[in-house]
Amino acid sequence: MSAHCQLTGKKPSFGNTISHSHKRTSRRFDPNIQTRTYYAPSLGRKVTLRLSTSGIRTVDKIGIDAAVARIQARGERV
Known about the structure:
Strand order of the largest sheet: 1-2
Distance between the termini: 15 Å
Order of helices and strands: EEEEHH
């Protein structure tokens, strides 16, 4: 599965690892993706979402129904 947040859309970013000798090698910065299951009253069922930690805080702030509406507005299946 790809390392992207279903709510915020955070994806991996890329950069360099710089060694002591200052040699640069490519690396990938992955977002902290967690799997969370919520009960969505608007859908009448549980939904499992792959969220970044900031996405989890957003769900706590706006509620699961509003978060599901945002995800569906972007065209993703829930």
